[in-house]
């Protein structure tokens, strides 16, 4: 996993989790959904990079 992609994945995951938590706290469904989506994008990016790493071995 390249360091840049790994950092992007972790940033998306953390930002998404924060938005999701904030949305739940204030009862904002849109913010909760937006955070969940962003977190899942980070998860997908991380999974893609792990697959690429396995392929290089």
Element layout with pairings:
Layout: H1 3-26, H2 29-56
- Ranges where pLDDT stays below 50 over 5 or more residues in a row are none
Give the termini separation.
12 Å
Shape type:
elongated
Fraction of residues in β-strands = under 5%
Count the helices. How many? 2
Helix and strand succession? HH
Helix content: over 70%
Commentary on this structure:
With 57 residues, the protein is mainly alpha-helical. Helix content is 91%, strand content 0%. It contains two helices and no strands. α1 packs antiparallel against α2. The radius of gyration is 13 Å and the shape is elongated. The model has no long low-confidence stretch (mean pLDDT 91).
Features:
57 residues; mainly alpha; 91% helix
Q: TL;DR of this structure?
A:
It contains 2 helices and no strands. It has helices spanning 3-26, 29-56. The radius of gyration is 13 Å and the shape is elongated.
């Amino acid at each position: 996993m390249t360091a840049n992609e790994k950092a992007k994945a972790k940033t998306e995951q953390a930002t998404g989790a924060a938005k999701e938590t904030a949305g739940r706290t204030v009862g904002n469904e849109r913010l909760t959904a937006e955070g969940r989506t962003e977190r899942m994008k980070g998860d997908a990016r991380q999974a893609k990079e792990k697959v690429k790493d396995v392929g290089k071995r």
